[in-house]
């Protein structure tokens, strides 16, 4: 582009005299939209066109010279579109000499002040500035934004177009986009989140993705640790029945799903005179783990005991496989329900539908007490109440006599302050206490405990995910015997199963017939 394309030269070639402030009247047919404009859609131009017909254009456009006597628009894309729709042949404009980087900075500044600029449009605008050589700090300074905000937008800009296409027209918050961006290293999980974005399954999808990512990150670190110890693991494969089986000549002693594998190997060496375990990696589906084996002399093993151990292992694995969906769903769905009710407990005003919800829960709880009795044996009501009221100021009330009951003290304090909200929280705690993973495998338990709770939550505005709706309709109810009542298996459990330690505070640690996992993950995640 020749430098003669100045305002004076333009006036000479067009025959237009500049107005005050260097403004010229340009033909709309000579002005082209800027292809680098962050705004992809100018929106509905009807009202703006009507205003322009009545009052004209009150704010000048900003353009830069382009080849062949044309101009490229920098600021005023909506005004130009409105003027064309209104039938104007000429519009007031200021012609400036700006390089591409300066143009993009100006467009981003103008558009970022508008509330209808999407997160993705703004993010791409910052990325284009960096592509032209701007630093993050410079882009923030030129646009009047903070460095942290620019970095957050650039995370979103890194999401490729294919992944964005899965989101479709859903309007997501910056937090949702950042969540999707966080899974760039795991395209399958990122795609799963993108497809769930904006829908009722979003929270469940995020939780599942976090669990899956935690497992993958831990397994990757475990592989690095084993390589550093010169231990080459066996990559185990599923059998035709969809289960893992112990490799020939080996016996499983430990199973790890989290924790420091290097420390686990060191402990093994202390217990086994410096020898290393044979390590197997079960990377897929519900039984995945890093397993430590010891070599065994098959001939020294009594045939009868071996057959019984193998039969027990198969029965136990089948039971775990059958129970895994209900266990995982029970934890995930309870977390969603408690998060919802905890939010209601923090509101200053009374939640809509609260009267109906309290009535439903109170009548159901009273009916159960009158017909079945109520026992606090093995109750988790204290923990559930604490999670519902964690934002409420704690009340001590401990008189030192050893009879301090946190649930009663906290409950009575809330009853004095807000009896209606206290009723809601206590009834929800009682209802949740009656629901465990076994509930979702028993149609009678679903009807008696789960369905009434969801009816009350629905009255409060709770949105069920598809998996919750399916579970209420019996999707987790086994079609036949799940093998959970096997006295022979229970008798052999200690002798035949790998050594494991339950996670502190986990539901597995509370079940007397289940072995826990070594470490913190301690949960089985279903493969897709």
Can you walk me through this structure?
The structure is a single chain. Helix 4 (100-112) runs antiparallel to helix 5. Strands 1-5-3-4-2 form a 5-stranded mixed β-sheet. Strands 6-8-9-7 form a 4-stranded mixed β-sheet, with no helix packed on it. The chain is built from 21 helices and 9 strands. It has helices at residues 7-14, 46-55, 77-86, 100-112, 119-131, 136-143, 147-157, 161-167, 174-181, 187-196, 202-228, 261-271, 303-346, 354-372, 381-388, 406-417, 419-433, 443-459, 466-472, 487-496, 507-510; strands at residues 23-27, 31-32, 61-65, 71-75, 90-95, 234-235, 250-256, 278-282, 289-295. It is extended and about 100 Å long.
Secondary-structure element order, N to C: HEEHEEHEHHHHHHHHEEHEEHHHHHHHHH
Please report the distance between the alpha carbons of the first and last residues.
57 Å
State mean pLDDT (0 to 100 scale): 76
Annotation, overall tally of beta strands:
9
How helix-rich are the residues, as a percent range? 40-55%
Which sequence of strands runs across the widest sheet?
A: 1-5-3-4-2
Major sheet size, sense and barrel closure = 5 strands, mixed
Beta-strand proportion: 5-15%
Rg, please?
A: 33 Å
Structure annotation, total helices: 21
Q: Report the principal-axis shape.
A: extended
Derived structural class: alpha/beta
**Regions with little confidence, pLDDT below 50 for 5+ residues:** 1-21, 481-497, 501-528
């Amino acid at each position: 582009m020749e430098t003669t394309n100045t305002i004076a030269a333009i006036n000479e070639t067009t025959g237009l005299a500049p107005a005050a402030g260097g403004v010229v009247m340009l033909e709309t047919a000579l002005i082209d939209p800027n292809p680098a404009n962050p705004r992809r859609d100018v929106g509905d131009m009807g009202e703006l066109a009507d205003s322009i017909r009545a009052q004209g254009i009150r704010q000048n456009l900003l353009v830069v010279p382009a080849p062949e006597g044309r101009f490229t628009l920098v600021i005023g894309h909506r005004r130009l579109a409105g003027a064309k729709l209104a039938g104007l042949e000429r519009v007031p404009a200021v012609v400036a000499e700006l390089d591409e980087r300066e143009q993009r900075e100006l467009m981003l500044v103008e558009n970022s002040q508008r509330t209808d600029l999407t997160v993705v449009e703004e993010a791409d605008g910052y990325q284009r500035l960096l592509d032209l050589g701007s630093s993050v700090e410079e882009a923030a300074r030129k646009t009047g934004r903070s460095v942290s905000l620019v970095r957050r937008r650039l995370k979103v800009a890194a999401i490729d177009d294919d992944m964005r296409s899965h989101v479709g027209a859903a309007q997501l918050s910056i937090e949702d986009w950042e969540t999707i961006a966080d899974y760039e290293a795991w395209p399958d999980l990122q795609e799963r989140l993108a497809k769930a974005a904006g829908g009722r399954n979003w929270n469940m999808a995020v939780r599942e993705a976090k669990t899956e990512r935690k497992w993958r990150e831990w397994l990757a670190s475990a592989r690095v640790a084993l390589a550093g110890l010169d231990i080459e693991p066996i990559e185990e494969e599923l059998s035709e029945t969809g289960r893992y089986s112990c490799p020939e000549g080996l016996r499983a002693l430990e199973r790890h799903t989290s924790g420091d594998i290097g420390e686990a190997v060191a402990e093994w060496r202390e217990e086994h005179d410096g020898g290393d375990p044979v390590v197997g990696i079960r990377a897929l589906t519900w039984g995945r783990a890093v397993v430590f084996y010891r070599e065994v002399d098959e001939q020294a093993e009594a045939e009868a005991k071996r057959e019984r151990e193998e039969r027990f292992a198969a029965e136990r694995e089948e039971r775990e496989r059958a129970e895994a969906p209900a266990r995982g769903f029970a934890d995930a769905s309870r977390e969603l329900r408690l998060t919802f009710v905890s939010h209601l407990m923090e509101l200053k005003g009374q939640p809509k539908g609260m009267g109906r919800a309290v009535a439903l829960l109170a009548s159901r709880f009273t009916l159960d007490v009158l017909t079945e009795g109520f026992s606090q044996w093995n109750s988790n009501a204290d923990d559930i109440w604490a999670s519902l009221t964690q934002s409420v100021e704690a009340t001590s009330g401990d008189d030192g006599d050893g009879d301090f009951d946190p649930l009663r003290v906290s409950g009575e304090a809330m009853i004095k302050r807000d009896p209606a909200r206290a009723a809601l929280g206590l009834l929800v705690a009682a209802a949740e206490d009656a629901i465990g993973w076994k509930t979702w495998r028993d149609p009678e338990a679903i009807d008696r405990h789960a369905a009434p709770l969801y009816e009350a939550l629905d009255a409060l505005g709770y949105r069920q995910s598809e998996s919750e709706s399916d579970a209420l309709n019996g999707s987790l109810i086994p079609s036949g015997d799940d093998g959970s009542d096997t006295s022979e298996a229970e008798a052999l459990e200690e002798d035949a199963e790998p050594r494991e330690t339950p996670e502190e505070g986990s539901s597995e640690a509370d079940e007397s017939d289940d072995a826990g996992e070594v470490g913190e993950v301690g949960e089985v995640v279903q493969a897709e």
